[in-house]
Amino acid sequence: MKNSATRSLFMALVLALSGAISVPARATGKAELDRSSQATLNKLVAKVPAAKALNTTAVAVLVFPKITKAGFMVGGQYGEGVLWKGGKAVGYYSTAGASYGLQAGAQTYGYAMFFRNERALEALTTAEGFEVGVGPSVVVMDEGMGKSTTTTNLQDDIYAFIFSQKGLMAGLGLQGNKITKLKK
Question: Are 160 and 41 in contact (CB under 8 A)?
Answer without folding.
Answer: no
